[in-house]
Amino acid sequence: MSDSTQETTAGNEPTIREQLFHADLEREPGDDNVHRWGIDVHPVVFPLSLAFIAIFVALTVGFGDRATTAYRTVFDAVNANFGWFYVLSVNVFITALVAFGLSKYGEIRLGGPDAEPEFSTFAWLAMLFSAGMGIGLLFFGVAEPMYHFLSGGGSFFDVPARSPAAARSATALSMFHWGVHPWAIYGVVGLGLAFFSFNRGLPLSIRSVFYPLLGERIHGWPGHVVDLAAVLATVFGLATTMGLGALQINAGLNFLATNYFAAGVPTATWATIAIVVAIVGVTTLSVLAGLESGIKRLSQANVVLMGTLLSFMFVAGPTVYLLDVFNSGIAAYLGNFLELSFYAEAFAGEGAGWQHEWTIFFWGFWIAWAPFVGMFIARISKGRTIRQFVAGVLLVPTLFSVIWMAAFNGSALFVELNVLSDGILGPLQEHGRAVALFELLSYYPLTFATSVIVTANLITFIVTSADSGALVTSYLAAGGKQDTVTRQRVLWPVLIGGTSAALLVGNGLDALQTAVITAGLPFGAIMLVMVYTIYLGLRREVAIERSDAYREAVDQSSNADTAGPDTLSNHGRRDD
Predict the structure, then answer these.
(1) For every one of its 576 residues, what pLDDT tens digit does the chain have, with 9 covering 90 and above?
(2) Nearest Cα to Cα of residue 372 among 211, 534, 133, 176
(3) How far lies 274's CA from each of 40, 251, 261, in Å?
(4) At residue 7, what are phi and psi to the nearest 5 degrees?
(5) Could you tell me which residues are beta bridge partners of residue 40?
(6) Beta bridge partners of 242
(7) What is the Cα 327 distance to its own chain's centre?
(8) Contact at 8 Å (CB) between 222 and 214?
(9) Domain ranges in the chain?
(10) Positive or negative CA dihedral for 109, 113, 116, 120?
(11) How far apart are alpha carbons 287 and 294 in whole angstroms?
(12) pTM of the model
């Protein structure tokens, strides 16, 4: 399909589509940037980001346990007073995203009617899944359901701990936490950024989504604050993920060395930091390779490795039992979907507190990650219709997540219920979450090979996340400018890795996790406003397409070799 309004006008005048649909701003992305030392950065967002990161790391390392206590106090206060806000907000995001996809707005194409997807459907889905939560499934895929099994389904399901009923409840809760809800959070931010960047001609930056309300002020301090918050959430979230991933890689290497080479791998802090340094090195190479050769290929490798692990577990594990777990888990998940979605612990009694440690934790973490993942999803989604975008973001990753949970959660539960009680729970409680997946693999064939694949997959997922995070932060720190130089993009994985290493030295990862979750509160409020501004933008798009000015422009373009700019310049230039 061709859109004649995207044809160029005479000379260097804007295209007809740009005149009718793009925001009426005089500035271009990066107009106010500072050019020094071969980099091109925003004069406010970039230096303040560096300053805040340095101060946070210094205080966390310097104050040690006192900083951890302070962060935990804030986290508990947010949970106690605003858990209801997280619950309601995420449901608003799901409702809005589905409504946009199913309504007349679902036919709008990101980038205009003539826009073509930059990536194949497989590559697109692989990249958005890898950036969104692939590493989380490896880290929590066994550990989380084991904790729910141990608690008897938390405060939501009132069943005996360690029982078959608790196993069913654990499966449903894990599917709930890794299903539709997190992808709705990512989808709202991704849709807003993609629409306002590709359809309204605004910078690929969080501030652009608020153009319908702020107008030119998106280039002032309100916009600076929004982008600054997005940079900090991205850096801290990725630093935490890199640290936790390095700990799990360390656990995997130690598991392999101990069981197959009669040796051990040091698990001290310096060894974990060495792994972080190696990850930064590989990430830097990926950044230098570019989006097409770096993130795209790594994302496809991620999906192949995860698919291999998933297929292995279904074949080598108790296949029929796992299929039954999938059916039972889906039934429990969907059967309790509405109640789980709106559940709060008002009537939990002595069981209160479970939701704060799990559901609110995840919702806050997904919201804190939304600027980074949402912007990356937006960057790779040009050319998709909004309906395709919503379906791709909500359905495909969710389906993979619930299948993954059924396979690995089901295999772990089979061990606990039918092979050896405390076979996985024992090491999990003694050594932490990082060992859970490797302990599970020890009960099934080809343990060495699968452990190697898991370790490799952890590395590729961390590198993919850090690489895409570097891409996103480089855009934000450059005022939305996308054609940043390579050395500028290389700076961010080094900064993220350095932050992670410094916090490992200062034992600050736990504190950083709670700080990131707390940061989700203000961004959750920002996202609620974002839902409204997306609606305003989509409504304006449809109104222009149905306007006399648009039809006149189409007719002029069809009947003449060029459309005179004087004829079009005063038509349709209306910004909500």
Answers:
(1) 444 445 444 445 556 666 667 776 666 666 777 877 777 888 899 999 999 988 888 887 787 777 777 777 877 787 778 889 999 999 999 999 999 999 999 999 998 888 888 888 888 887 776 666 767 888 888 999 999 999 999 999 989 999 999 999 999 999 999 999 999 999 999 999 999 999 988 888 899 999 999 888 888 888 888 888 888 888 887 888 888 888 888 888 888 888 888 777 887 888 888 999 999 998 888 877 765 666 777 777 888 888 899 999 999 999 999 999 999 999 999 999 999 999 998 888 777 889 988 998 889 888 888 888 888 889 889 999 999 999 999 988 888 889 999 999 999 999 999 999 999 999 998 888 888 999 999 999 999 999 999 988 888 888 888 887 888 888 888 877 777 777 778 888 888 888 888 878 766 666 666 767 777 788 888 899 999 999 999 999 988 888 777 777 767 766 654 444 444 444 444 444
(2) 133
(3) 31, 14, 21
(4) -70, 150
(5) 35
(6) none
(7) 27
(8) yes
(9) 32-345+359-545
(10) positive
(11) 6
(12) 0.87
Query: Which residues are CB-contacts of 547 (< 8 A; sequence separation ≥ 6)?
Result: 572
Tokens representing 387? 């309906």
Helix (H) or strand (E) holding 41: strand 39-41
Backbone angles phi, psi at 133, to 5 degrees: -165, 15
Cα 127 versus chain centre, distance: 11
At the top level of CATH, which class does the domain 32-345+359-545 belong to?
Answer: mainly alpha
Query: Three-state DSSP class for 214?
Result: helix
